[in-house]
Specification:
There is one protein chain. The protein contains 13 helices and twelve strands. It is of the alpha+beta class. The strands form three sheets. A five-stranded mixed sheet has the order 5-6-1-7-8. The chain binds a DNA duplex through helix 8, helix 10 and strand 9.
DNA sequence: TCTGGGGTCCTAGGACCC
DNA sequence: TCTGGGGTCCTAGGACCC
């Protein structure tokens, strides 16, 4: 028996979140930028209609922004994360099983609802009323088909944001109209390979022999074919699986040329990584990397990267920063008289485990004060604001800090950012 | 000249996703 | 001048073992 799976996604979430608190943004073109104000990562429908592309660098569209009065925002992840959490809360009132897939998408178990479309429409209305974000819902027997249904709901206003494709004849009718590259799991490379052998639509991919699919695109493509046929291969995961790795990486606002500045950024990234890590467990491997601006091949290029084991496994900020320093020093260029402008640096953590599962070493040297110290650190920074207390090697100049020239207030998470009504 | 067979584990890199 | 960040899964190939 096939279970109906719904996927609900928030329309242009970052833009929708900005619009909740600023009504002047309604019906006008809005784009939200990536970190460092680099590229457009979210666009309102009006901005899409003006031809603004996902990932387009801001500096290439300045004229268009000025000509059309496009409203531009730096990304405000604190706000978007909080809005996303509120949307999920509404979903949880509409089904007992919610799988959070990304910041703007959730799979919802729709098993047992008699009128799925009516249920989804009620959910839509409720999210809009309680949070203020428009969502679209696709329903089908597998996740891949649900993503297709969601896409159909998104592109055809006639369906009013909800499309139920549980009915096989509906799928037979619509899949010939879906370009193969629009299918979840088919990226640019696979799309090209499929087109080479004459497969251009979802219906044609659905009819592909399994062995051929496996040969052309590994078991991943084989699963996609089965999913299109209505056989669920990608499980519904209500419980969040244990994280395997984690990264904190940033471009810098200005090129970093000396080790101290570079290490200030790395200290900040390692500190943030440790904070995040403490929500998930401990890490076994830490990697530091940094590289010059790859968009400027005319300048000297250098990319350095080093990894180290964390023994014992740890989530202690001091352990991570110390390990990061060893790696950062080891990766530093040993070239005489060369000067590099580093544009990006990052920390990656691998081999994550829940704290209870960490292997104990014979001479387990976990500092007995560490958990209390880290709890105090998190508490201070939670109560008095991020970076109230930092490690000294993070420095105070912050010349490497990223640009965010168009940031909106953290309306829902910072009292000080609430608009004052006079 | 002749030089086994089969298994596991790890890692780097590719592809994809949002 | 100015080009994001953070994940997962799979495979091939090398190292190593018996």
């Amino acid at each position: 028996m096939t279970r109906p799976i719904a996927i609900s996604d928030s329309a242009n979430l970052y833009v929708s979140a900005e619009r909740i608190f600023d009504p002047t943004l309604k019906n006008v073109p809005v784009i939200v930028l990536s970190n460092n104000d680099g590229c457009a990562v979210a666009r309102s429908d009006e901005a899409k209609a003006l031809g603004n592309k996902m990932g387009e660098p801001l500096h290439l569209i300045r004229d268009k922004v000025a000509a059309h009065g496009i409203r531009v925002f730096s990304s405000n992840y604190t706000l978007y994360g909080d809005i996303s959490r509120r949307v999920v809360e509404v979903y949880e009132d509409y089904t007992p099983n919610v799988e959070i897939y990304s910041i703007d998408e959730c799979f919802l178990d729709f098993t047992g609802f008699r009128d799925r479309t009516a249920h989804a429409k009620a959910l839509r209305r409720d999210v809009l009323r309680r949070v203020g974000v428009p969502v679209r819902v696709g329903i089908a027997p597998t996740k891949t088909l649900a993503k297709c249904a969601n896409d159909i709901a998104k592109k055809n206003p006639i369906f009013a944001g909800v499309f139920d494709m549980m009915d096989q004849t509906l799928a037979d009718w619509l899949l010939p109209l879906v370009p193969v590259g629009d299918i979840w799991g088919i990226g640019r490379k696979t799309e090209a390979k499929l087109k080479d052998i004459g497969i251009g639509t979802a219906a044609e991919l659905r009819a592909m022999p399994l062995r051929q699919a496996q040969a052309l695109g590994t078991v991943v493509l084989e699963r996609t074919v089965l999913e299109l046929q209505g056989e669920a291969c990608i499980a519904f995961d209500e419980v969040e699986p244990q994280r395997k790795c984690m990264a904190v990486t940033r471009s810098s606002g200005a090129p970093m040329t000396d080790f101290d500045t570079q290490f200030q950024a790395i200290t900040a990234h390692a500190t943030r990584a440790a904070e995040k890590l403490r929500q998930h467990g401990v890490a076994g491997t830490l990697t530091v990397f940094y590289h010059t601006n790859r968009h400027r091949p005319d300048r000297p290029q250098y990319a350095g990267s080093r990894s180290t084991r964390l023994t014992p496994m740890s989530s202690d900020t001091f352990d991570l920063v110390a390990a990061a320093k060893r790696c950062a020093l080891a990766a530093w260029p040993k070239i005489e008289n060369a000067s590099f402008g580093f544009a990006k640096a990052g920390i990656m953590l691998d081999d994550l485990l829940p704290i209870a599962d960490r292997p104990r070493t014979l001479f387990d040297s976990v500092k007995p004060t560490s958990p209390a110290l880290m709890a105090a650190l998190d508490d201070v920074n939670g109560r008095f604001g991020k970076k109230t207390m930092v490690i000294a090697s993070e420095g105070v100049s912050r010349s490497w800090q990223l640009r965010a020239n168009h940031r909106s207030p953290r309306y829902t998470t910072r009292l000080a950012d609430l608009p004052v009504v006079r």
